[in-house]
User: What shape does this take?
Amino acid sequence: MLLKGYPRISESFISTEILLLESLGIPLEIYSLRQPREDFTHDHISEIRARVTYLPEYFLTAPRILLESNLNLWRRLGSHYASCLSGALKRAVERKKAATVRHFLQAGHLAATRLSGSSVTHVHAHFCHTPASVACFASELTGLPFSFTAHAKDIYTSEPDQLARKIRKARFVVTCTGYNADYLKNLNDSANGGRKPPTPIHTIYHGIDLNLFGFDPARPPAPPWNILSVGRMVPKKGYDDLLRALKLLEETGLDFRFTHVGSGESAPLIRGMTRDLGLQNRVRLLGTLPHREVLAHYRRAHCFALACKVASNGDRDGIPNVLIEAMATGLPVITTRVSAIPELVEDGLNGLLTEPGNPAAMAEGIREILFHPASTGERVKRARTKVEREFDNRRCVTRLHALFKSAIENRENRVLLPE
Assistant: This one.
């Protein structure tokens, strides 16, 4: 399993997936391209048995390690290595991106130090940008099949032709929403041009551990109203729009407190907007917190709000796991019609949807949740049912388990490097 960073607080769905796959008997090794960013992790990380190895992240920080391992691999593979290197250099020149060479060297290092003479039969990458690039090069070098899971930002900020190339070379592709799958299938079909059967693309939701998110919709129906949001502070989350909605609510005389959990590149902007809008006494920006503390916030809040939108660079959410978590606990949600969110939140049925970039509509939706408890109560019950039916991670991971089980048992396609 090749990851960009491990473990990450914001990617608990990946570590939970790994834990569940281990419980179903899939033997795993984890290779990460980056060290952890946080100094704390989710509690379940300690239960994962897989060995974790950190690859050199950048050439300039570990030139000797990367060059020595690749030279050793070149000696063993001869013209095959030279051919793969030539192809990587050609792509780097065409794309004017030195990162392509770095990805190739990381793949060579992985092949030389781990894949040679090992029992590994398949390589899987999480995210279709850097990790899938390294996995694709490793596959070219070793002959081992590879696959990848595509998520959100990695899909829509990738060059379509490069992403299509990775899809074409992969054994299979997994993605976490139907919206993503449609986009990837269109790339797949156009790239293949009928020359060969298209690469299978599977839609498998991440899901959540329902044992952690007990359903408890009971909250004191009185002000001050507690409005909660959890998510990274990045443009696609729309926290600028949400702050403007909160200002509109304040101007109507609503007595509320807003709590945000998360961090990110837009944090200075959001702090500045909070001051400029005069919301300092109503807004708490708590930064990144451990999962158990986030759970406590879900249980205390009256409403969960997330104003997602498509960022200027094309980045957008898939289905934010925090929405699933909030719905599982009985916390009413309001969010936007972006990407695959309507696959989870059905407007008026199990939550509320507004158009992105519309603070007034977001403010009105929050008021509806707070002041119409009867209809809100019915929505949160249907929300829990939806999560139980389609987003139970144990059910979701059984489909992924079947794909990996088939991949690791398909030994006739295994090509190992000479020892």
Observations:
- Confidence is low (pLDDT under 50) at residues 412-416.
- The first helix runs from residue 12 to 23.
